[in-house]
Amino acid sequence: MQGLMMDYQLTLTPFLERAMRMFPKKEIVTKSGPSLERSTYGEVTERIGRLANALARMGIRSGDRVATFSFNNTRHFELYFAAPCMGAVLHPLNLRLPPDQLVYIVNHAEDKVLFFEPQFAPAIEKLSAHFKTVKQYVVMGPTVPETTLSPVVSYEELLRNEIPDYPWPRLQENDAAAMCYTSGTTGNPKGVMYSHRSLYLHSMGLSMADSVGLVERDIYMPVVPMFHVLAWGTPFAAMMLGTSIVFPGPHLTPRDLAELLSAEKVTLTAGVPTLWMGLLNLLDNERYDLSNLRGMVVGGAAAPQSMIEAYEKRHGLKIIHAWGMTEMTPLGTVSNLLRSQEGLPDAERFAIRARQGPPVPGVETRAIDENGKEVPWDNKTFGELEVRGPWIIKSYYNDERTPQSFHDGWFKTGDVVVIDENGSIQIVDRSKDVIKSGGEWISSQDMENVIMSHPKVAEAAVIAVPHPKWQERPLACVVPKPDFKDSLTKEEIYEHLKTKFTKMYLPDDIVFIDAVPKTSVGKFDKKVLRVQYKDYVLPDR
Amino acid sequence: MQGLMMDYQLTLTPFLERAMRMFPKKEIVTKSGPSLERSTYGEVTERIGRLANALARMGIRSGDRVATFSFNNTRHFELYFAAPCMGAVLHPLNLRLPPDQLVYIVNHAEDKVLFFEPQFAPAIEKLSAHFKTVKQYVVMGPTVPETTLSPVVSYEELLRNEIPDYPWPRLQENDAAAMCYTSGTTGNPKGVMYSHRSLYLHSMGLSMADSVGLVERDIYMPVVPMFHVLAWGTPFAAMMLGTSIVFPGPHLTPRDLAELLSAEKVTLTAGVPTLWMGLLNLLDNERYDLSNLRGMVVGGAAAPQSMIEAYEKRHGLKIIHAWGMTEMTPLGTVSNLLRSQEGLPDAERFAIRARQGPPVPGVETRAIDENGKEVPWDNKTFGELEVRGPWIIKSYYNDERTPQSFHDGWFKTGDVVVIDENGSIQIVDRSKDVIKSGGEWISSQDMENVIMSHPKVAEAAVIAVPHPKWQERPLACVVPKPDFKDSLTKEEIYEHLKTKFTKMYLPDDIVFIDAVPKTSVGKFDKKVLRVQYKDYVLPDR
Predict the structure, then answer these.
(1) How far apart are CA B275 and CA B271, in angstroms?
(2) B513-525 tens-digit pLDDT
(3) Domain range summary for chain B, segments of one domain joined by +
């Protein structure tokens, strides 16, 4: 027996039409240098129609990839809808990637056109000879600067020549709408191809009161870059709801942000923890009126409990701690308090909110042990987190590495977690970093954090080294602070560790090194150390 | 180009599994006589497994209809999931329908099994000879009362004999999950067949902060009957979110409700306006602590502005005014204030909230004139409301009357509306009642309300009568109050009407009648009057 409900396709086009009709006067603001460029959903949706006509005229067809190299601004937002709603695929490029990865990504995605900010012209010029499929460059501004790129045209000139009406095609919900590449530390980046359906459902997910709860009444400022998992999918939800948006443009110093949050009476913002650490430091020293701000979404890395606490206690500001992945569009968990937790003492409440939290409706989670069995929700047993749901990938784009990321139809996140009785997740390590000692999994992250809390230690990386009896045992690679370079001893580290860990968790050895190797984006690159110490003979302990 | 996201089917089964795992301790309470029966999601989801096993054992197969004749209680909630998640179709019957309609519905739906409350045994006995497909009766209680029904078994006996584990099948999202019949005033009721997908998406819709915003933290009491569009779909959303539920059982006097709302610290409730009018009257005279109540959802009929105002001003309670239809699962609009409306004077804000409001994301709306053209959003021009979306029907179940309800893929609601610049809808009449005079549409409802505000009038119905020049003109059928039965004059009514309407809107004639004919559920049955006056010769005016 079939249900008899409309075969209504979940695509982004109704979001566009809804905002055009219902919210034409709502504001969209972009910080551009010292000034603010103000426009409205009415103007922007009209420009989106012009842009779609321009894309069609330049030969962009259904499924073609439209790349962007841009900041958080209104033009970028226009591309977020013009490309997917005309049937093409939006592809924002990560501004921070090294040139070789950018070239790989543009060629792998087979981008047909590249929209970029004027100031990136010199950088793009250097790469363009390596781009195999790009047929058109568009400068995201009123004019074209002096450049060797060709053919090239300015965004505003493009729009001037077009009409606002575009015959939006009837898309199917599983059609591709956008793509992003992961910036993995191993091998080439992998492409994630979002469908219209996944972005539609994810927008509803973000709007649920138990999740981020975005509403029409919000004035929302996405600080998370629009190339970073599509600004966490929030621009799509904003269009759906008619939420006013403040795009912060390229300048993201704490002072820039504080001034903009205050001046534009922003109610909700979103960004990575580093950003909010900087803002916290500023707010501790200078006064800004952030009384309209109801929430600050934090994702991309774990929000330290101390930061959540500091914002709430010192500034009355609420951190909305979320976790997700590029492969998850990205919303996975939001660490809101449950009803039963609301009355708990401060310390417990903040500890709960510093966890990644329970999955939002739409996302299913489980943690799996070495034998492929689900681990209990006892908040102790380690397992690799696997996820499933309508906005989670089923495969990477044209990538033979896909199979290793899936297990029985579930996506393997690569995170090692514990899960408590409420289904709240706490990430304890990456699965490639966890030390599998006999049946026991040891978190390298936990141990690193404890070692780095020693006053004489600058950095520490804990890695697994092969062991004849235990399979793997931990080796701690420690960088002393300059003043203690020659004086810090293994015994001091062990004494410190013993206050937190029982004997079986202690590293089998400690080596002192000059620095922990880093990736291009500044993260610890432990695979270099693992290679270096793969034959290291651990002492008997 | 296809998106590469999981082919994850949107079914109710993940809601069930989610609550089972994440919220086993959350409470589900049913008022049963003077006492409260307390259980938990842990217990209830276990019983749902037993119930599914019992359904399978009694021969219920994929697609079979499982009928209920019951109140708002925990057993009914168990059926809400056991039937759909095992692949069958839940079919709650409207307790208030006349016997002939019930028989029609049960036979038309081909219900295989009928679950009913013990006190309805005598009523069911009278009808059972007419049921052509019912093969099994189940009494929703611990034992079977003295009855001629056969075969019959008690619910608790059924569950006692089963195990809680059930091998939930992998369903497809377009599979039928539940059905309800509309109680139209014309002809036989029409069946609406909800899919798993529509109930899943509708649950997300209800949970959006810009809609009803149901959350885990709520303690929710559905007063709207579970046979009335599945209690507006709210029990599915509650399972998804792990929201505590208080089922009020059969006794719904204002005092019953006030005591339960207070004792159980309910945060959100939902029901029809009549119910809340009764409660308002009680609260005006007696004190109850309803300080936990954050919202009262009103639907099923328009909430009078005076009621919205009275609750807010006198009791600090917020009415969440919503509109929908059986054919829409039912959520269509929620009359929340927009950001731009928050600062308006009280009178304007309450007038806005008394409208049906803007459509929630997921629902598309337009209003169409006689020529099939869309009318402008000027808050003046009448048009028939048409809707489209993923939780709106595409056809009635086995019903040849289906085509007349659709227009170009849109569902014709049968409501005549005006729409303002924000897309907010106000219903002015039913399309069968509106008087089409030349190019102008005249609202019979508006005129009835004005006539009924005359101190000497008890009831009034305004109907269209054929007219040689204008196609249709209004005729007012007026019932004087007993004391004015012989003294009330047409002139008095006209004088009163002239204060509100210009000449072209005034009825061409007024007739005095003894009573307005009523339907079985007590609504004005204007079609009887239309038949009676179809050849009425209107005077020249």
Answers:
(1) 7
(2) 999 998 766 778 8
(3) 13-198, 252-432, 439-532
A109 in contact with B, Cβ within 8 Å: no
State pTM to two decimals. Answer: 0.94
Phi, psi of A204 (to 5 degrees): -65, -40
- Candidates B278, B315, B281, B275; CA nearest to B298 is B275
Q: With CB atoms and an 8 Å threshold, state whether B6 touches A196.
A: no
- Does the active-site annotation cover B45? no
- Tell me what the mean pLDDT of segment A89-113 comes to: 95
What's the order of all strands across the beta sheet hosting B176-181? B152-154, B136-139, B111-116, B65-69, B89-92, B176-181, B191-195
pLDDT category, B387, cuts 50, 70, 90? very high
pLDDT value at B377 more than 70: yes
Q: Is A384 helix (H, G, I), strand (E, B) or coil?
A: strand
Q: Is the Cβ pair A5, B193 closer than 8 Å?
A: yes
The CATH number corresponding to B13-198 among 3.30.70.20, 2.10.10.90, 3.40.50.300, 3.40.50.12780 equals 3.40.50.12780
Options 1.10.10.10, 3.30.300.30, 3.40.50.620, 3.40.50.10860; which CATH number does A439-532 get?
3.30.300.30
Cβ neighbour number for residue B330 with a 10 Å cutoff: 23
- CA dist A336 and B76 (Å) reads 30
Q: Which residues of B touch A391 (CB under 8 A)?
A: 5
pLDDT tens profile A302-313: 899 999 999 999
Q: List the single residue in A with minimal CA-CA distance to B337.
A: A217
Rounded distance between C-alpha atoms, residue A166 and residue A162, angstroms:
10
Token pair 């970093």: residue: A433
Q: From chain A, pick out residues whose CB is under 8 angstroms from the CB of B203.
A: 361
Q: Which secondary structure element, helix H or strand E, spans residue A31, and what is its range?
A: strand A27-32
Interface of B with A in 362-391 (CB under 8 A): 362, 364, 377, 388-391
pLDDT at B531: 92
State how far residue B359 is from chain A, nearest Cα, in angstroms: 10
This complex has an ipTM of 0.94
Q: Percentages helix, strand, coil for chain A, rounded to the nearest 5?
A: 30, 25, 40
pLDDT tens digits along B447-490: 998 999 899 999 999 999 999 888 999 999 999 999 999 999 99
| Superfamily for domain range B252-432 | ANL, N-terminal domain (3.40.50.12780)
Q: In angstroms, rounded to a whole number, what is the distance separating the alpha carbons of residues B197 and B200? A: 5
Distance (Å) from the alpha carbon of A140 to chain B's nearest alpha carbon: 26
Burial class of A265 by CB neighbour count within 10 A (0 to 12, 13 to 18, 19+): middle
Contact between residue B185 and residue B203 where contact means Cβ atoms under 8 Å apart? no
Distances from the Cα of A529 to the Cα of A98, A174, A184, A320, A467, angstroms: 22, 42, 17, 35, 16
Which of B6, B176, B244 is facing A3, going by the closest CB pair?
A: B176
Quickly list DSSP for B291-320: TT--EEEE-SSPPPHHHHHHHHHHH---EE
- Residue of B117, B162, B327, B384 marked active site: B327
Tell me if A394 and B203 make a contact (CB, 8 A cut-off). Answer: no
Residue B208 in contact with partner chain A when CB distance is under 8 A: yes
Identify which of B3, B214, B411 has the shortest CB distance to residue A198.
B3
Q: Contact A175/B210, CB-based, under 8 Å? A: no
Assign A388 to helix, strand or coil. strand
Equal CATH topology for A13-198 and A252-432: yes
Tell me: the pLDDT tens digits for A119-150?
A: 999 999 999 999 999 999 999 999 999 999 99
C-beta neighbour count of B167 within 10 angstroms: 9
Q: B374 catalytic, yes or no? A: no
Catalytic residue among B264, B333, B441, B459: B441
Tokens read off for B56: 């399978």
